[in-house]
Every structure is written in C-alpha cells, then in structure tokens.
Amino acid sequence: MLAYPFPRESEVSCVLSGAAGLGIQTVEDMLARVVVDSGLCVFGSREYMSRVRGGNNSTELRIARSRVDALVDRMDILVAMSRNVRVNILERIAPSTVIIGDRAELGTELDDAGGVFVQAPLAELAAEAGGRIYSNSVAAGILLGILGLDPARAGEFFVKRFAGKKPDVAERNTRACNAGYEIGRELVDGKGLFGKASPDESVGRALVNGSDAVSLGAMAAGCNFVTAYPMSPATGVLSFFSQNAERAGAVVEQTEDELSAINMAVGAAYAGAKPMVTTSGGGFALMSEGISLAGVVEAPVVVHLSQRPGPATGMATRTEQADLELALYSGHGEFPRAIYAPGSIESAFLLTQEAFRVAHKYQTPAIVMTDQYFVNSFYNLNPNDLAMLDELPPVRETGADYRRYEDDPSGCSPFGVPGFGEGIVGADSHEHDEVGHVYEDFKLRKRMQDKRMRKLRGMSDEAVAPRLYGPEDYDALVVCWGSVIPIFREALSLLGLERTALLAFEQVWPLHSSTGGLLERAKRVITAEGNSTGQFARLLRSHTGVKASGSILKYSGLQFSVEEAAQRLSEGIAGKGGDS
Amino acid sequence: MQATQFDLPGVDISWCPGCGDFKILDSIKLALTELALTPLDVVVVSGIGQAAKTPHYMRSHFFNGLHGRALSNATAIKAANPSLEVIAVGGDGDMYGEGGNHFLHTVRRNPGITNLVFNNMVYGLTKGQASPTSQVGFRTPVQVDGVHSQPFNPLATALVLGAGFVARANAGDVEETKDIIKQAINYRGYALVDIFQPCVSFNKVNTYAWFKENTYWLEGHDEKDFERALALSVSDAPYPLGVLYRGTERTTFEGSLAAYRLDDTPLFRRGARREALKEIIGYMSV
Ligand SMILES: Cc1ncc(C[n+]2csc(CCOP(=O)(O)OP(=O)(O)O)c2C)c(N)n1
Ligand code: SF4
Fold first, then answer.
1. Residues B22, B177: contact at Cβ < 8 Å?
2. Ligand 2 touching residue B124 (CB < 6 A)
3. pLDDT exceeding 90 applies to what percent of chain A?
4. CA torsion, points A305, A308, A309, A312, in degrees to nearest 10?
5. Which residue of A114, A247, A292, B87 lies most exposed, with the fewest beta carbons within 10 A?
6. For B121-148, how does the pLDDT look when each residue is reduced to its tens digit (9 = 90+)?
7. Whose CA is nearest to atom 5 of ligand 2?
8. CB B35 within 8 A of CB B182
9. Nearest CA in chain B to A404
10. What is the per-residue DSSP string for B94-113?
C-alpha cells in the first residue's frame, strides 16, 4: 500500500473504533465541533455494522489546516474503545500509528499490532468522573490533549448537547474529558500537534453531511412533500424532513411501503406539491412502476437514491455505486429522466436543487444518487458557499380551455393543478389525448411519445458539464462519478502525474454534449467507480463510442481510500493495471 | 338519468351493455350534483380495471394511475390540497388485491377521502379470473376447481382498522347508492362504500337477481353501534346494505400534518422557505 506522506504539522488522521452504544457518535460530534471552533478543518467518515448494539464501528476524523474531503487509510492515531477491533481497521495500523486503548478492556488484543501502544486507563478515569459510560469522553479528551485543542470548548459542547438532561451529565462528561486531556497533553509534552491553531474566521463553521446536504438542497428548492419507507442509508433525509416539517411547511409521511411512497409523490406532484422520496436500491426497485407512472403522467418527482451493495438486501450499512443502471433503466417504457451524482456536500446541495428545477421544468422524474459513504461523510463549510438557485416559478392558473398535455415544441405542456383556475386537470397512466383521457389511437400514441421524448433535447442542453481537474492537454484521463470524485482527485494530486487529468461527472444522465470530445482527446481513459462491472464506463461507451482502456473498480462494501486510489491509479496509468 | 354538469358528452364508454358500472356512475354524478359540487371541486382518482375507468366517463378533475395504487395517489392529493374533494374509485381486485396493503394503511391513516369500490367479485378487465371477494367454489378459467381461499371481507376489515364510515350499497339501487355516496362524501375522514356490482360478462353467479335476492336494506339500524356493525359486516347472505357504521369523526391524516399547523395554504401555493433554511444551516454552525 502506498504510504501517505503525512505533513504532521498540517494534518492528522484519527480513528475511533468501538462498539455501538459506547457513545462514539457523541464524541465524534464533539471533536468535530471543537476542531472547527479552533479554526481547523475536519472531514469525518463513518463505517458501521448492520446491528444496533455490539459489533465494532469506526469513525475517521481527518483534521487539517485546510479543506479535506476524502477518506484515507492512514491512521496517525487509533483510539480503540472496545475489543474485537475489526480487520478493516487492523489492516490499516502502521508502525507509526499511535494506538490508544485500555488493556482492561482490550486485553492483549493489540499487542502484536504494528503501532505504538499507549495504555490509557479509560475505564478507571471514567469511573472517577461519574461512571464507566464516560470513557468515550476520556478518550476524546486524550485526543484533544494530543492535538493541543482547548478542552474548555468541549465543556461548552457538552453543556449544549446535554441541555435537556440533568446538569451533572454535562459536568461528568466534561470532567472525564479533562482527565483524558491531561493524559494526551503529557504524551506530547504539552506541545499539542495543532498548538498554534487559533480561531480563523475564514474557516467554514457549518458541519454538514451528505444526507443533510441533500435535505437542505431539497428544502432550498421548495420541497414540501416527502414520503419514504425507511431503508439504510437513505433514511436520514426522511428524518430531516420529519424534524423540520413545520418549519419547511412540508407534508412528511412514512408510508407502508415504497410503492405507496412513490405513488403518493406522483399524486402530490399532480396536485402541485414539490415532492421527493428517499430510498436505497431495494426500495427503488419497488418504486420502478411509480417512476414509470411519473414518466407518463409527466409528474415532477425527485428521488433520492442512496446506494448500498446489492443484489437484494446486500450489505445494509456498506457502500457501493452499483445502482446506476437501475436508475437509468428503472420503469418500463421509454421516458426522459435526469440523474445526478454529487461528489461534494456543496454539489449535493446545489444538484438537489437542480434536480427539482429540471424535474419541474421538464415535468419528469429526476434522481439524485448518493451512497452510504457519501451520506455519512461530513466536513465543515461556509454556509455562504452553498449556492442557491432561483426559486421555481409559481404554478399558473388554468383557463377554461386548459389541456394538460397540450403539444409543445419543447415537449413541456403547460402545468396546471386541480383547484387553481377554470380548467379541468387530468392525468392518466395510459396513453392519453391532450386532455388526459385514455384514447387508443396510433397517431396519438406517436404524437404523445414524441412530445415526451422531445424534452430530452432541452434536458441535454442544460445538463451539468463534467468537470476537468488537472492539465487541459492530458494524455490520460481518469473518469469518475459521484462520491469517489474527491478521493480520486486527491489521489491524483498525490501522484503528481504531469499529463493526467480527472474528469468528474456529477450529472450522469443525460450526458453533457462535451463528453465525447473530452474523452476522445485522451490517449488513455481509465474509469474508476464503486461497482464490479463498470456501469458508468458502459454508459460512456454506448453514448460516445469511447471505450475505456482500463477501469478501477471496488465493490468490497468499503469506499476507496485515497491511498488505494493512488496505488491503483499508478498501476493503471503505467499500463499495468485496471481490472477489466 | 337527469343531465348533470358532470356529464362528459360524446364519450365512448367501453363497459359492456348492462354492466352495473353504468348505474354506479349515475349515482356518483347525481350525488355530486345534489351536494352542489362542481367538476372543479372534485378529483376522481382511480387505478386500473373496468371500474377504474370511471373518471374517463365523467367531467371533473381526474387522476387515473396504476393498478392498486389509487389510494396512495388520492391520499397525497388530499394532503397536498385539503380543499379538494377527493374520491378514489376502483374494483375489488384493484382496491383489495393489488392495492390491499394500501387499503389497510389508508384506513389507518384516515385521509378525508371517499373510497368507492365497485365489487363484482371478479376481475372484469382481464376477463374473468377470481378476485379477492370471489366466493368459495367460484369457477373461472384460472380457478378451474373453484376458488379455495376465503373471500376478503372489506367491511369487517375496515371496521377493525378503525374506519369511521363503512357502508355497503347495491349498484342496481341507484337512489339508495347515491344517498350513501353523499353521506360518505360529507363524512370528514376516510369513508368506504363497497358497492355490489353485477358483471354481466364474467360473473354468471352474482347477477342482478342474485344481489337482489341475497341483500336487504338495513332499517332502524343504529349507525353508532360498533359491535352491531361488526356483527352485520361478518354476516353471511342475505347481506345487509346501508351505512353499517358512522363513528365520531377523528383527526384526519391531512388535519394532523405539521405542514398545516401554522399555515393552511395548499402546497402548490408555497414557495421555498429560505429563511427557515438559513436558520437550520445556522444550527449546523454552532
Ligand atoms: C401491475 C398490474 N398488474 C396487472 C394488471 C392487469 N389488470 C388490469 S385490471 C385487473 C383486475 C381488475 O379487476 P377489478 O379491480 O376487480 O376491476 P374490474 O375490472 O372487475 O372492474 C388486472 C389484474 C395491471 N394493469 N397492472
Ligand atoms: S366486464 Fe364486467 S365489469 Fe367489465 S364492463 Fe363488462 S360487465 Fe362490467
């Protein structure tokens, strides 16, 4: 594995590992807040098992002086809270990794690990602070001491976080954290790694994860109807809207199944709401008939499809990018759709709005594709960097002669809703006439199908262009889409290759018209994506005729790390590698 | 039939001559007219099947969606704009078979919609297979030995799930059916009217005459008496017709939504709430 050059002064990667229920989430939140309040940047990424208690989960926090937004394998510090540390963590322990743990809990488990082991009496100090459940705060305190961040900020965090509880909860956490802090400080002789950090006004203070970004983007677009059937990793969006239903003015309902969720969304769209459903691959598969319905009734619905490994139930809490073809081809019959795949939090915010804009302008479904890695990753950003699109135009009143499916050169008929105007508003899942009544006529069928498909022209003209990172005069082009983009971008900059560029797609359908030209200019095209068959490579080939000369695929259930991406890129570009 | 503003002139109706659906269509149009509703007030929502073609044969807003999903569409339309009068129509296969799960959960959810089920105890559109309400022994080209499964009991099911308005009508009795539909529309909450409907083409057992002989109109029945309603709902032939149960109105689905707590504008008039958005992003910064 390629070693990651680690400029100690500017960046540290900390991993906390422990059983669910140990409060890792709380300290993760706390550390992220303190890091940001200290004027530093943080990137957090979580991996967890599909169980509510026990097992071992981990969270990675990259702490740096400037923006970080990708997963790394490197662990400078590993805090092991409970025994049975999982192999995906053990493999990442390097001789330079400082392991912090309590032998009372871990036993001799990590004795043979390559890193430096620091025995920390987590349980004992926690008990002194008020109970063993505070050992997470002791561990977090140790990290603060090593990093050289002010523990008083942790105290402030606990007071806010536990505002609704008895005051001694915050106090005990603070006490535990302070006890840990002293240990951490001693480990670095009082010279914390970021000792010189001071609050920097330019550092963005909002901590936003992928799920929040999709939710906030939807809200910015005016989304006011959210239905879903819970499914990891898509449920965060449902929770967000449930918790903000009154503020957002949004109807939110957990439905009996995904069929109902999408059919409610289509009904709501017909009545003029701005609906979104959120699901993962298994639920999306069930929604397929409803997607098709949205296509024929020309309903603007937005679907958030957060991927996890399949087929079927696959791995409920792991990540993959294998539902592209499902999204592309779901629903029987032919109809236009738009598909987005954000690579960053800011993009997720913007592209979710774009999905609403396009869904409404073209009266057809739009899909925002994320994945488990993406929705559970976060970093700090400046709220001003969240770009807002213009608001959607208001619905127009219908006249008495209103015809819902009036033929129009753009393919987009005038959109009217029942209850606003003098017109009758009809919608039909069958082939229908301009008014919306079922009517079997072969000429009409062709006219209506042409009308619907014509929208694709406008949608293509307005497609988000792929972004090129690196030299314009590239020989080799690395192509990726969605959540892997920042990882490969960092991997490429790490490799410092001269004539290699990255082409990043955040809209995967319809493809922007520049796509073919950009691919043809390269001598070698290497695609990188999180599935086992190269779905995006296949799409590019069928639409541009360009066949990638290599592909880098990952489908273990874990996301690529920067190091792995760099390693495989260097092999791929040297011509050795690729998997296809 | 008297002319109503819900008539759609010149429409080519594809129901078989003599089908009970014609009479139900008449009852619906009369009920709406007598309630002084206009085609602009009403959205008729349906799925797929012969019965589900109803909205194409009358003048009003309509949403003709997928097989079995009308109740989801209808619930959402009502939730998106509670001032619309939403009526979900369909056959027994559509509502209780393909849409069975939605039926259960729509009753529980209690949206303020009217659910009319044209119950012909057979699949009409697909030419005569058994439906969930077909009686045991009913033979079809698919159920060649006769139906084995127990028929689905929509009235009892709706009652035990807490439906506030549960009624049964008979397509042949237009006047009474119209009256029940009016009451169902006026009921604030989910209202089920299961309407016996002879399919003259594919159900040679449950005919006009059979329904006449095997039903009776309730008289002097206390509609508030849940236990009696339940007993009536599970009774074998002769089947009671009329309003079996009318409970006290409880909060409707749309009435319970946080979206309307501070603001009763229908969703289509709402813009993006960007101030609220900024506030939420603000919380993420502290
Ligand atoms: C998903 C799906 N499955 C099957 C069908 C075929 N289909 C159309 S109508 C129907 C049954 C209709 O029966 P019912 O609801 O009782 O209505 P009727 O025609 O008797 O009025 C079926 C199975 C379909 N259109 N869609
Ligand atoms: S098939 Fe049966 S239900 Fe359908 S129209 Fe004919 S008689 Fe009516």
1. no
2. yes
3. 89
4. -60
5. A114
6. 999 999 999 999 999 999 999 999 999 9
7. B15
8. yes
9. B61
10. IIIIITHHHHHHHHHH--S-
How many whole angstroms separate alpha carbon A358 and alpha carbon A303? 13
pTM > 0.95: yes or no: yes
Question: Could you say which residues from 53 to 72 on chain B have a Cβ atom under 8 Å away from some Cβ of chain A?
Answer: 53, 55-56, 59-66, 69, 72
For residues B76-105, one letter each, b for 16 or more C-beta atoms within 10 angstroms of the residue's C-beta and e for the rest, the string is bbbbbbbebbbbbbbbbbbbbbbbbbbbbb
**Using a CB-CB distance cutoff of 8 angstroms, which residues of chain A are in contact with residue B286?**
160, 205
Helix (H, G, I), strand (E, B) or coil at B43: strand
- Give residues 213 to 232 of B whose Cβ lies within 8 Å of A: none
Q: Over the stretch A461-478, which tens digit does the pLDDT of each residue have?
A: 999 999 999 999 999 999
Q: Is B40 on the interface with A (CB under 8 A)?
A: yes
Q: Taking the mean position of all CA atoms in its chain, how far away is CA A399?
A: 43
What's the CA gap between B176 and B154, in Å, rounded? 20
The sheet carrying A524-529 orders its strands as A467-469, A500-505, A476-481, A524-529, A550-553
ipTM of the complex, rounded to two decimals: 0.98
Q: Whose CA is nearest to atom 8 of ligand 2?
A: B19
The separation between CA A98 and the C-alpha centre of its own chain, rounded to angstroms, equals 29
**Quick one: tokens of A292?**
């098709």
- Edge-first strand listing for the sheet containing A11-20: A116-119, A98-101, A77-80, A11-20, A54-64, A41-47, A378-381, A206-209
How far from each other are the two terminal CA atoms of chain B, in whole angstroms? 68
Q: Is B9 exposed, middle or buried (0-12, 13-18, 19+ CB in 10 A)?
A: exposed
Mean per-residue pLDDT for B72-100?
Answer: 98
Ligand of minimum distance to the alpha carbon of B15: 2
- List strand residue ranges (DSSP E) for A346-470, in order: 366-371, 378-381, 426-428, 467-469
The answer to whether the CB atoms of A225 and B80 lie below 8 A apart is yes
Which residues touch A59 (CB under 8 Å, ≥6 apart)? A15, A16, A24, A25, A28, A44, A45, A46, A47
What's the B134 CA to ligand 1 centre distance in angstroms?
14
Taking the mean position of all CA atoms in its chain, how far away is CA A263?
25
CB contact under 8 A, A253 and B79: yes
Distance A144 CA to ligand 1 centre (A): 64
Q: Which of residues 5-34 of B touch A (CB under 8 A)?
A: 11
| Ligand positioned closest to the Cα atom of B171 | 2
CA A506 – CA A481 distance, rounded (Å): 6
Distance between CA atoms of residues A160 and A164, nearest Å: 9
- Read off the tokens for A423: 């017109």
| Separation between Cα atoms, residue A356 and residue A450, nearest integer Å | 23
> What is the spatial distance between Cα A426 and Cα A127, in angstroms, rounded to a whole number?
67
